[in-house]
Every structure is written in C-alpha cells, then in structure tokens.
Design brief:
Number of strands: 10
CATH architecture of the largest domain: 3-Layer(aba) Sandwich
Number of helices: 4
Helix content: 25-40%
Largest sheet: 7 strands, antiparallel
Structural class: alpha+beta
Shape: globular
Strand content: 25-35%
Radius of gyration: 26 Å
Number of domains: 2
Distance between the termini: 55 Å
CATH class of the largest domain: Alpha Beta
CATH topology of the largest domain: Protein Transport Mog1p, Chain A
Length: about 210
C-alpha cells in the first residue's frame, strides 16, 4: 500500500509540474492516505452489500414446511419444478441439480421403512443412518449420474428429502459441492421462522 501511495504521489507531482502549478497544491502523503482509505472503505461496503444479496438469493427457507438449505453459488432455481413443498436448483452448464422437498409421510413410517421402500423401488442406495431420524447415502441413477441423498424425518413424522445429482464423470468437481449443500440442510418447527443470527438446529437433531 505504501508503494502504491508513493507512486500515486509522484504521479500527481509530475502532473502538477507539467501544468506549472505550485507544489503546495499537491495533496500531501497524509491526505493521499486518507483518500485511499476512504475509497477502500467504500469499496468494501459495496462488496459487503453485494455479498449479502448473493447469500440471500442462495438461502432457501421454507417456513411453512420447516426447513432451509443453502444452494450452490451461481446455480439457478427452476421455477417450473419448484413448488410450495420445495425447490429445485440447477447448474446451467453441466446437468447437475439439487432438489429439496417436504412430504407428509401419511403412513407415519419410520425412516428405516422409508429407506427400505426406496431401495425396493429404485437402484439400491448405499448409505448409513445418523440416529433414528436421519439417513445419508449415495447411488447411481443408471443414466451416468451420481446421486447423493439426505433424508430427515421431522418431529411431526413428515419427511424432508434432499438429493444432489451430477454427472458421474464430473465427480471430482461436484462431490465437495454436494457435500456442503447437503450439510447445509436444516429443519425446524413449521411456521416458525429461524432466527437470522443463528442457524436452526441441525437436522440430525430434528426429532428425539
């Protein structure tokens, strides 16, 4: 920073001499430093505002259904497939997407029954239970795509399911993104807005 300020001061001095202005009109180093700091503070303020807007656009909160998730940066929400029950967000260039939806679980099945039924109806999912009310696993959809899934059974028996689908050949690029996205899933009591200053309780603690 000192080098940049010195260079700027020298440039102003040369310019002033070329215009045959008195050296006394050239800002001193303290003034230059103050001006530079003011400019940097203003830039930081604008950058912070932009970051806040970007984060707000990435954070999806479904208060009526009681869950939230942070979507990957730069991805686009699909308004045609998103509903009141959840959201679909897509990477425009690579055929990857994340889907997070609430379902009623009208039969009041426990999570193990739900996972067993899922395995019976589709490609087997390889995963583990995290307590009694959370399941995380991976699968292949048979069409060249890898699928990461996180399922949470809430206190009221309803289910929140998040899936992250991406081309298998791009696993190295998307595995970390998928991990962070599914990790960001939170559940809370429906119709209760989570506090802005703190994240809702972790999904694995959604039900006792």
């Amino acid at each position: 920073m000192k080098t940049r300020l010195a260079s700027l001061a020298l440039l102003l001095l040369v310019t002033a001499c070329g215009r045959q202005e008195s050296v006394s009109e050239v800002p001193n180093s303290e003034q230059l430093a103050a001006d530079a700091k003011a400019a940097a503070d203003e830039a930081a303020k604008k950058s912070g505002a932009s970051d806040a807007v970007a984060l707000e656009n990435r954070n999806y909160v479904n208060t009526p259904r009681g869950f939230s998730i942070t979507l990957p940066e730069g991805w686009v929400r699909n308004t045609q497939t998103s509903t009141a029950e959840g959201v679909v967000s897509e990477d425009p260039g690579a055929g990857a997407d994340v889907r997070v939806f609430w379902s009623a679980n009208s039969n009041d099945q426990d999570l193990r029954q739900i996972v067993e039924a899922m395995n019976d109806q589709s490609e087997a999912v390889d995963g583990d239970f995290v307590g009694e009310n959370e399941y995380r696993g991976t699968a292949n959809d048979g069409e060249g795509n890898s699928v990461a899934v996180r399922m949470v059974r809430k206190k009221d028996g309803s289910l929140v399911t998040a899936t992250f689908v991406y081309p298998e050949m791009l696993s190295e690029q998307y595995q970390a993104i998928g991990q962070r996205t599914l990790d960001s899933l939170r559940v809370f009591d429906a119709a209760v807005t989570p506090p802005a200053e703190a994240a809702p309780a972790a999904a694995s603690n959604a039900a006792s």
